[in-house]
Every structure is written in structure tokens, then in C-alpha cells.
Amino acid sequence: MAPTASNGARPIGIFDSGVGGLTVFREIARALPREPLLYLGDSARVPYGTKSPATVIRYSIEAARYLMSRDIRMLVVACNTATAAALPKLQEMLPVPVIGVVEPGARAAVERTSGVVGVIATEGTVKSKAYTTAIKALDPDVEVIESAAPLFVALAEEGWANTHVAREVAEIYLEPLIDHGIDTLVLGCTHYPILRGTIEQVVGSAVHIVDSAETTAQSVKHAIGQSRGVAEPEYHFFVTDAEERFRRIAAEFLEQEIENLELVSL
Amino acid sequence: MAPTASNGARPIGIFDSGVGGLTVFREIARALPREPLLYLGDSARVPYGTKSPATVIRYSIEAARYLMSRDIRMLVVACNTATAAALPKLQEMLPVPVIGVVEPGARAAVERTSGVVGVIATEGTVKSKAYTTAIKALDPDVEVIESAAPLFVALAEEGWANTHVAREVAEIYLEPLIDHGIDTLVLGCTHYPILRGTIEQVVGSAVHIVDSAETTAQSVKHAIGQSRGVAEPEYHFFVTDAEERFRRIAAEFLEQEIENLELVSL
Fold first, then answer.
1. Among A111, A116, A134, A125, residue whose Cα is nearest residue A153
2. A209 forms bridges with which residues in the sheet?
3. pLDDT reported for residue A8
4. Which CATH number does the domain B102-212 belong to among 1.10.4160.10, 3.40.50.1860, 3.40.50.1820, 3.40.190.10?
5. Site from A17, A52, A172 to mutate, B interface, most B CB atoms within 10 angstroms
6. What is the per-residue pLDDT across B55-97, written as a single tens digit (0 to 9) for each?
């Protein structure tokens, strides 16, 4: 356990299966520019989206324990699959607030929709029906259609977000949702904001986009309350494997080189 | 340790990080229709292609130990990344023959080429330069160009192998190799044979395709020698996670439903 610092200097911990949660990191850094942040990407075991809930819960607990040992003041589960599988368990276990990415996205969707919400996510998140459950809990009259868009992850990670191929893949995934009459689309995987431009071109301006990275950052800001933070907050990144790949993709996702990257074992 | 059976009934063990090695399984079953086969897919930790060599070696040793506990007569490392990282270590450790997928593919490439070989593989395999090393060891005059084609894995797994998108991705990956004048192309990832039709359309009939699943099956047949096998060999499949996903993709890769699928922990 690291020595306990004053509240202003204790970092917010952000956890994801790999690089996708960096979109959440980016939005939290924008919304709370005075807060120190720790990011843990479980790159040795990525992706979570195709794994079973029991496995995802086990991995999430290990990641949370690691970040707790670094004296975080709050945990953000910046991975839809991990949120869908493990959030209640983590909230029950940990002595700090735990915020997931599903509920903020569901809330924003209900605020914006006039009745039909589309959700695109990984196979694991879609199977869990976490978004349908969260949206229906807020407004049972909203119709929700969930659809898996697994190729978007590979396209984002390989730097193909703004290519003709990405556009064509987006058309194939999104046209059934458009035909169904969605008025709001939730980007239910933290990789997908990287493809936001392409997705917007395909769905057109009549469909509201809910970016769960943005909405989660607003929830974190709300939960932090009156923090003074620090003048020059530090960012630290931890990965469980393949630092160089993480460094390369992080530079693309964050549009700047990262410092303080460390390999750890959970 | 399972009781030792007579040689004819002891299975060949085939190991991969996930589903890709099923292309090798399929070719071994075709080449040796009387041999019982065990297939282990480490689906809890897939993919290996983006992980570090040290991690891949550790995972490969655990997988090999599991299959040894099932009394296999031979181990086939049906994963290019694991072969590139861990083959010498496994050959040193295990008391049974260990065959990888790189050397058979390199040998076939050297036999067929008139001078310029292209290799497409995962990022991990390309970084290792395993194919360049293996080909140069056989014939130092052959020119080798290696290139990563990571999106092919997702396209194969999501059932998009024969789509227009796959064709376009193949053109983007392969045109630099064609322009460079390759006369032979090694499919250096066990997922890629699923896209063979699309790849052949792009490179044209003047380029020889080396399918490392096929060439590995021939090496296994040669190493097995005069085995009588059994009249009705059984196939058993073990995965470390997400059986249903494995079952669905296996049915596509093998073009038939699989039986005897079991979840195990390494």
C-alpha cells in the first residue's frame, strides 16, 4: 500500500482490458484537468469481449486490487464488457466509489431519444443485455436494439478508423439499425469513439450519438465534487504486456506520446 | 497422467491460442484419417499475436503440460506466434516430438520460389522474423518480405472471409508485396487459410500460395511414420474459455459441428 496522500493528490484509477479505455481516460483528463490519473490496461489478457462473464469478473477483481494498492480515490471501469459483468461485484468489494461506463451511456440515451435506441458493442456486452437492462430501468417505454460490431475494435487498433474499409464495415453494421428507425446510437464499446467520424457519416445527423467515454467522464466529474486537484497532475500508465504496442496505439488514441508507462503483473 | 495406451491409440496433441489452429487440425485429420487427435485452444488468453515473447513462452509451456497429461504421442504447435517464440524451449522440455508451423512453411516456400517470398502473419510473428530466419537457413539467396495482416484474423473469426470488405483489406495488405515482385506467398498465420480464396483472387495465379496448415500436416504425417492408427479415431477439443464462441467458429472453420468439447483450466 502506497502512503495515503491528501484527497486532492490521490489519483483516480481507470481500468480497461487494453487500449479502448484510453478514450475514457482522454475525456476524464479533459473534464478534470487537475486530477492525477492512473490507467491500467490488462493487455496480457485482452480482449475481454469474447470471454465468459466468470473470467471477466476474475480479471476485473485482480485489476481493481492492483489499482487499490496504488491508493486510488475512485475506480472507473472503462470497459463495457467488464462493467456489464463485474460492476456490482466491484462496488460491493471496494471501499471507494466505482463508476462503470454502461449507466452513464444508458442515462444519456434515455435523455436524448424519442423512442428507439440502437446500441453497438462487443459480443460479450451485447449478450449480457446490460444496456437494454439499464435503459429499460430508466424508461421501460424506450425500444432498444443491440448489435455486435466486433470488427470495429480491430479497425480502431490498427489505425484504420478513417479508411474506406471502415466506412464499408460501418455501413454493414449500421444499416439494419438505421432501417429499424433508431434515433439515438450508443457507442457501447470504448474503442468505438475512435471511429466516431466514420459512424456519424453513415448514420447521418438525424441520429444522436452517445459516446460512453464522454458521458462517463461527466459522471466522474459529478462524483468527484469539489476537488481542488493539483496544478500539474501526473498520469501513470500500467500494462500487463506488450508495452510497445500499447505506447504506439495510445499515441494514436490520445493524439500525443505517453510518458510513465510501466509493465506490471496482476 | 492418463494410463499409457498402445502407440496406435495415443493421440496427437494440437495446440493453438484459439481457433486459428483448427485449419491445421483439419489438414492433419485429412492427411491422417486414422489418428485420434486432441485440440487445445487457449481461448482465455487469445490472441498471442500481440503479446510479448516471454508471455507466449509461458502460456505455451502451460498448454503443452496440459496435453502431456493426456498422454499425447506428439505435440503440434499450430500457432505461428507460439512456434516463433516457444518451439525450441518446448522441444528441449518435452519427451515427445514437437512440430511447429514455421519450418514446414519455410521449406515449402524455398521449394516453390524462384527468388522472392512474401510472408503475411501477425505482428508478433513478423517481429520475430521467424520465417525470414527459417527460409534463409535453407537458402540464403532467397529474398523474404514479411508483412503484418492483423485484420485478417478478425475477418476470419467473424465469418467475413469471402466478403467485399475482405477483398478490399486483402488488396491493401497484398499490393505492396505484389509490387515488390513476390512469386510465392506464405500464409504465416493459421487463421489465414480461411481467407485463401480471397487472397488467391488478389495475388493471381502466378503467385504460389504456401498454406502452413497443409505443409505442417505433411510434416506430421512424415514424422508419424508407419502408424496403423485406429478405425474410428476420436477427436477431443479443449478450450480455456467461451466454449460457445469456439463451437460456433469451429463449425465454420471445419465445415461441420464439433463434439467432445470441454472447458479446462491450465
1. A125
2. A185
3. 53
4. 3.40.50.1860
5. A52
6. 999 999 999 999 999 999 999 999 999 999 999 999 999 999 9
User: Nearest CA to CA, how far is B57 from chain A (Å)?
Assistant: 13
pLDDT cut 70: percent of chain B above it: 97
Domains of chain A by residue range: 7-100+215-263, 102-212
With pLDDT > 70 as the criterion, what percentage of chain A qualifies? 97
Which residues in chain B have Cβ-Cβ distances shorter than 8 Å to A164?
168
CA atoms within 13 A on the CB side of A92: 6
pLDDT band at B242 (very low <50, low <70, confident <90, very high): confident
| Averaged pLDDT, A64-80 | 97
Pairing of strands A74-77, A98-100: parallel
A126 contacts A152 by C-beta, under 8 angstroms? no
CA of A170: which chain B residue's CA is closest? Answer: B165
Nearest to B158 among A51, A150, A165 (CB): A150
Return the CATH architecture of domain A7-100+215-263: 3-Layer(aba) Sandwich (3.40)
Picking from A154, A198, A203, A144, the residue whose alpha carbon sits closest to that of residue A174 is A203
Establish, for the pair of chains A and B, how many residue pairs have beta carbons separated by less than 8 Å: 59
Which A residues, 28 through 87, put their C-beta within 8 Å of a C-beta on chain B? 43-46, 50-52, 55
Q: For residue B44, which residues of chain A lie inside 8 Å, CB to CB?
A: 45, 51, 55
